[in-house]
Amino acid sequence: MKKEEVKKVLSEIDTDNDGKVSAKQLHDYINGGKCHFNKAIIEKFISDHSKDGNDHLNLDELAEVLSG
């Protein structure tokens, strides 16, 4: 899937439309049954980019990782 396609899918969890989501939102997304991406990759992204589990994460960076 291309990066732009991944970003479009991920935009559904970006409730503020600011290009960022909380680690909690991502956890809810991957555990909610709607996620079709590799959960292990998303979990690694969260652990690599979130110091305390509450940081807001850049969806553009996540889309890059998931599309690669």
TrEMBL record:
Organism superkingdom: Eukaryota
Record SUPFAM superfamilies: EF-hand (SSF47473)
MF terms (GO), sorted A to Z: calcium ion binding
Entry-linked Gene3D superfamilies: EF-hand (1.10.238.10)
Residue span(s) of domain EF-hand: 1-36
Pfam family, one: EF-hand_7
Protein name: EF-hand domain-containing protein
Organism of derivation: Calicophoron daubneyi
